[in-house]
Amino acid sequence: MNIAVKRMTAPEWRPAPPEAPGMTYPWTTPPGLGETVEVAPGVLWLRMPLPFALDHINLWALRDGDGWTLVDCGIAMDEVKALWREHFATSLGGDPVTRVIVTHFHPDHFGCAGWLARETGADVWMSRTEWLMGLNVHRDQEELGKTAQVALFAAHGLDTTQLGALTKRGNQYRKIVSEPPASYRRLRNGDSFPIGDHDWRIIVGTGHAPEHACLYCDNLGLLISGDQILPKITPNVSLQAAEPGANPLKDFLDSLDNFRGLRADTMVLPSHEYPFRGLEARLDHLGEHHDERLAEVADACAEPVTAAELVPVLFRRELDTHQTMFAMGESLSHLMYLVADGRLVRERAGTDGSDGPWRFRKV
User: Fold this and answer.
1) Does residue 354 carry a pLDDT above 70?
2) Do residues 267 and 308 make contact, with C-beta atoms less than 8 angstroms apart?
3) 302 phi and psi, to 5 degrees?
4) Residues 49, 82: contact at Cβ < 8 Å?
5) Would you tell me how many other CB atoms lie within 10 Å of the CB of residue 228?
6) 294-331 as b/e, with b when 16 or more CB fall inside 10 Å?
C-alpha cells in the first residue's frame, strides 16, 4: 500500500451525483468540518478530511446508552485529532466513547483507531484479518511488502521510472496510522449485538479488503457499508503481492450477494460521497459495471499485452504515481479474473518461458 501524503485542506463541497435508476439521495449537503447531521435517531454523520484526490471520509457516531460507539476513525494526522477533540466536546456532548468499530484496515478507516483507544479508553472492534493486516503493514519496517509489490508490478510490465518512484517511498502507512491497539474485540460475519436500543448485525464483504465488516440494523433500516458499497465510484479491488494467485475481483463480486435481501427501504451510509437509498439497484449497477469492464479488458487482449499496458483501458485519465499503483492492482485483478474464467491465458514473452514480463492474451 502506497500513500502520497500532502497537506490537508477542507474537503471540497460537491453536490450529490445525479440519481441513477433506482437510487435516491436523502441529503444533498454534507456536514462541514466539526459539524454533524443526524441521519436517523441517535445516528450522527460527520466528515474528516483526507490528503488525497478523494478528500474526505464519512464517519458515524451511534448513541450507545449514556455514551457513543464510533464507526471508523479517519487518518492519524493532527488536523483530524483536533477535529475529534472538538466533536468529543460538542457533537458528542462530553459523553464517553464506549467502543470504536473499524470496518477495515485501510488508513482512512484504521488510522486513528489506536489513538482513539488510548484517548478514550474504549476497545477497538474489528475482524481478525483486518486487525492483523493493519498490525502487519504498520510494523513492516523492513518494507518487505513494498519490495514484493514492486517485484509484482515489474513482472507485469510497469516501467522503470514508476518502479523507481515506488521504491523510494518509505512506509507511508505508518505516517498516517497511529500505533495499533495491542488488543481488540473480534467481529465475525453474522455477529449481532446491541448498540444503544437497537441490534446491529455484521455483514462481511471481501475483495476491496480481506474481511471488511459492514454493520446493518434492520430496525432502523440502515447499512453502514464502509468502502464495500459506494453510491457512484467503485472501490479499488487490487491484486496484492502477498497473494499473487488470488482472484480478488471474484471475491468482491461474490460477496455483493451478502447484501441482498435487506429491507427495501434500507438507507446505505457509505464511507465516501453521500448516503443513499436503492441498495439492490446499486448492487446491480456494480455487477453490470464490472461485466462491462471485464469485456473491455478481454477485447484489449486480442494481442498479448501486459497489465501495465492495460491501465489506460481501465483508467482514461492522467494518473500520478500514487494512483498508478492502485491502477496496476486493479488491472491485475481484472486480468486474473479473466484467466480464472478461462477467457485469457497468461504467458511469459521469453523463449525459455521465464524471460520478459507476463502477458495476457484472449483464448
Assistant:
1) no
2) no
3) -60, -35
4) no
5) 29
6) beebbebbeebbbbbbbbebbbeeebeebbbbbbbbbb
224, containing H or E segment: strand 222-226
103-149 pLDDT tens trace: 999 999 999 999 999 999 999 999 999 999 999 999 987 787 888 99
Backbone torsions φ then ψ of 267, nearest 5 degrees: -95, 125
Cell numbers 492492482 correspond to what residue? 329
Q: What pLDDT score does 5 carry?
A: 43
Report the 10 Å Cβ neighbour count for 179: 15
Read off the amino acid at residue 240.
Q
pLDDT digits (tens, 9 = 90+) for 168-197: 876 789 999 999 999 999 999 999 999 999
Q: Is the pTM of this model over 0.90?
A: yes
CA distances from 296 to 233, 331, 334 (A): 18, 12, 10
Q: Which amino acid is at 4?
A: A
> Residues of 121-140 as b/e, b for ≥16 C-beta within 10 angstroms?
ebebbbbebbbbbbbebbeb
Query: 291 pLDDT exceeds 50?
Result: yes
Top-tier CATH class for 37-297: alpha beta
Cβ proximity of 191 and 340 under 8 Å: no
Which residue matches cell numbers 518494507?
143
The ranges assigned to domains in the chain are 37-297
